[in-house]
Design brief:
single chain, alpha/beta, Rossmann fold, four-stranded parallel beta sheet, 13 helices, 8 strands, about 45% helix, about 15% strand
């Protein structure tokens, strides 16, 4: 049997919270054409002429506020996931970790995988939802590097798992103890994306950032519609947790000024909710599988201050999945299914479709990725 391995890829982090390291990281991150999707000359002008001149010190201060003795919380949590997952699946299927931006770099880790003689690779982007600036850029970058270094390396990609019943169960298992705390409301805060990204990804409802529903189940657009996928995650979790409509709401964080982004905005909701009677708040961030700058600084830091200033009484950020056992078990189950399909094709029909890490990304995604 060809040697197999698993590659986990997350966003990444600066090597340190120093200004120089943060500048280097932001240059790579925001220089990605799937993040700042502007023509190259405009992207360069915005990045080099504005962002890297005005935002680096503020970003460095934000990273310093969450830095730990292990370094970046996102990197540290991702390493623990890699190690725990590797212990569960065993030495026959080694687990590697790379970051889309920063270190360990995709090119470096692919080189390690090739040197180890791996012929069959399962890529697991650490994003439950599709977005061109997250899931898609990871898939494209890994495949580009694999083609460059090892054209015969077979790369299978695990699909966005935003509504996978086992993922929802894992999310609920990690969250359930917090739902027992006294609270008035649960806010699901998702990473924001420009409305333009919805349109470019083929979302037929992308003209409106405020649509209450978007690309319903069964529509081909849903495979690349971030908004419809976060709605699906929220509804599936609410059903699993027994939340009714008045118990929760959705918002979007981390926007840039200058163009329409998905709404409502998290900071505006945090300022509004106390006046609407939600003075005891729980906040979940299901777009992230590991706690990071966006959850620890933007929500638990700045967001909490906004909520308290508006009259809030208690505020609790529910931690992300991180390296907790339910998430490790979820990932291990997907790897086991992938290995089973490789051992014997006759196994595949016996496994529910939601358990498979499909090699075929579907017509819409294949078009988006240029497959």
């Amino acid at each position: 049997m060809p040697k197999r391995a698993v590659l986990l890829v997350n966003l990444g982090s600066p090597d340190s919270p120093s200004v120089d390291d943060v500048r280097r990281y932001l240059r790579e991150f925001l220089g990605d054409e799937r993040v700042l999707d502007l023509p190259a000359p405009l992207r360069w002008l915005l990045l080099e002429g504005v962002i890297l001149r005005t935002r680096v010190k503020k970003s460095a201060h934000a990273y310093a506020s969450i830095w730990t003795p292990e370094g970046s919380p996102l990197i540290a949590a991702s390493r623990r996931v890699r190690d725990k997952l590797g212990a569960v699946v065993g030495p026959d299927v080694p687990v590697y970790l790379a970051m889309r931006y920063g270190n360990p770099a995709v090119a470096e880790v692919i080189a390690q995988i090739v040197d180890a003689g791996v012929k069959d690779l399962l890529l697991i982007p650490q994003y439950p939802h599709y977005a061109m600036s997250s899931w898609e850029t990871v898939v494209v970058r890994v495949n580009e590097e694999a083609r460059r270094q090892a054209p015969n390396l077979r790369v299978t990609c695990m699909q966005p798992f935003y509504a996978d019943a086992d993922y929802i169960d894992a999310l609920y298992a990690v969250t359930a103890p917090y739902l027992d705390l006294p609270h008035d409301h649960v806010l699901f805060s998702y990473h924001g994306v420009p409305v333009r990204h919805l349109r470019k990804a083929g979302c037929t409802h992308g003209h409106s950032a405020r649509v209450t529903d978007c690309c319903p189940p069964g529509s081909p657009e849903r495979a690349t519609c971030y908004r419809s996928q976060v709605l699906a995650t929220t509804r599936a979790f609410a059903a699993r947790a027994g939340l009714v409509a008045d118990d929760y709401s959705i918002s979007f964080q981390s926007r840039l000024a200058g163009e329409p982004w998905c709404q409502p905005f998290t900071d505006a909701e945090l300022a509004r909710l106390p006046g609407a009677g939600a003075k005891r708040l729980l906040v979940m961030c299901p777009a992230f599988v590991a706690d990071c700058l966006e959850t620890l600084e933007e929500i638990a830091g700045a967001g909490k201050k906004v909520f308290w200033a508006a009259g809030g009484a208690s505020f609790q950020l529910i931690p992300c999945l991180n390296d907790q056992a339910p998430y490790i078990d979820f990932l291990a189950g997907r790897i086991e299914c992938w290995v089973a399909t490789r051992h014997a094709s006759s196994v595949a029909p016996q496994i529910g479709a939601r358990h498979l890490a499909q090699a075929d990304t579907g017509v819409t995604l294949k078009h988006r990725l240029g497959c």
